[in-house]
Amino acid sequence: MSTATIPAAGEGRIGLRANLRHIGALARRNLMQIRHDPETLFDALLMPVVFILLFVYVFGGAIAGDQQTYVQYLVPGMMAMMGMNIAMAVGSGVNEDFRKGVMDRFRTMPIARSSVLIAKIVVELGRMLLATAILLGMGLLLGLEIRGSLVALAGAVALSTVFGAALMWIFVLLGLSVRTPQAVQGLAMLVLMPLQFGSSIFAPTASMPGWLEGFTRINPLSNLADAARALINGHGAVAHPVLITLVWTVVITAVTMPLAVRKFRSKT
Amino acid sequence: MTRQTISTGGGNAVEVRGLVKHFGDVRAVDGVDLDVPEGTVLGVLGPNGAGKTTLVRCLSTLLVPDAGRAVVAGCDVVRQPRALRRRIGLTGQYASVDEKLSGWENLYMIGRLLDLSRKAARTRADEMLERFSLTEAARRPAGKYSGGMRRRLDLAASMIGRPAVLYLDEPTTGLDPRTRNEVWEEVRRMVRDGATVLLTTQYMEEAEQLADGLAVIDRGRVIAEGRIEELKAKVGGRTLQIRPADPAELERMADAVARAGLDGVAGATADRDEGVVNVPIVSDEQLTAVVAVLGARGFALAGISTHLPSLDEVFLALTGQKTSGGADSPAGDGGPEGPGAREERYAEVGA
Question: Between B81, B92, B165, which is nearest A104 by CB?
Answer without folding.
Answer: B92
